[in-house]
Amino acid sequence: KIGWCGSRKGREPLIATVMWLGETDSVANLEYEIRTNSDLAGYAAGRNGLPSLEAFITFVAQKICENDGDNPTTASIRVKREAPHIFRIDGEATINAAAKPIKGRIVWLPNLACFRGRVTIDPEGRVDRMLIDDVNAVRSIAWSKAKWHGEDHDHCRLCMATLSDRSTSATFDTGYTAENCGWICPECYRDVVIAGGTHPWLKPKENAT
């Protein structure tokens, strides 16, 4: 079974996610639960080039189902827009009749025309592990410095800073890119790839007393 997420001009299907039939049923059930029980007002389909609400719901449901060892039967979420293409997810999922918190962050990348992000169930400690995995993945890529190019803008895959040729104090017009890997901003390249630092969303750990 192939599940589609995202859209490109004139073509709704873009990114195919391969799922077993059992997983497809779980995703379909969660899509219905999310659509029925959630506060989705923070997502404005069609605004700023965003794809349909259905594509967004499908991506969120897939990410919830990717949590290892969890088999949620219901879920409800609240979507808050943090930036034109960045959305924070909070809510609850029901697993074995117990309600567990879910948290996540979803980003729409216009240049790649796809969503990226994670939604974790009972996220204590697990978010850190996922962010560290992101850093390790970024360090394994051969990045090339380039002037940003594209139709509008994109985001750094680590810190979500904006890359655009429309100069503002909140954007970079130059970054680092690799084929099918998106972009990272100059600060993340310097701090994470070159200097070996951690993910910018991970706060420094306080020294134990």
Report on the structure:
By secondary structure, the protein is α+β, with helices and mostly antiparallel strands. It has 4 helices and 12 strands, in the order ββααββββαββββββα. The strands form 4 sheets. Strands 3-4-5-6 form a 4-stranded antiparallel sheet, with helices on both faces. A hairpin with a 2-residue loop joins strand 3 and strand 4. The longest helix has 17 residues, at about 20-35.
Fold blueprint:
Blueprint: E1 2-5, E2 15-18, H1 21-37, H2 53-65, E3 74-83, E4 86-95, E5 98-109, E6 114-121, H3 126-139, E7 144-147, E8 153-155, E9 162-164, E10 171-172, E11 174-178, E12 182-184, H4 186-194
Parallel strand pairs: 9-10
Antiparallel strand pairs: 1-2, 3-4, 4-5, 5-6, 7-11, 8-9, 11-12
Structural class by secondary-structure content? alpha+beta
Strand arrangement, major sheet: 3-4-5-6
Which bin fits the share of residues in helices?
Answer: 25-40%
Shape: globular
Number of helices: 4
Helix and strand run: EEHHEEEEHEEEEEEH
Poorly predicted runs: 1-24, 205-209
Give the key terms.
209 residues; three-stranded antiparallel β-sheet; four-stranded antiparallel β-sheet; alpha+beta; disordered C terminus
Short structural summary:
Helix content is 25%, strand content 33%.
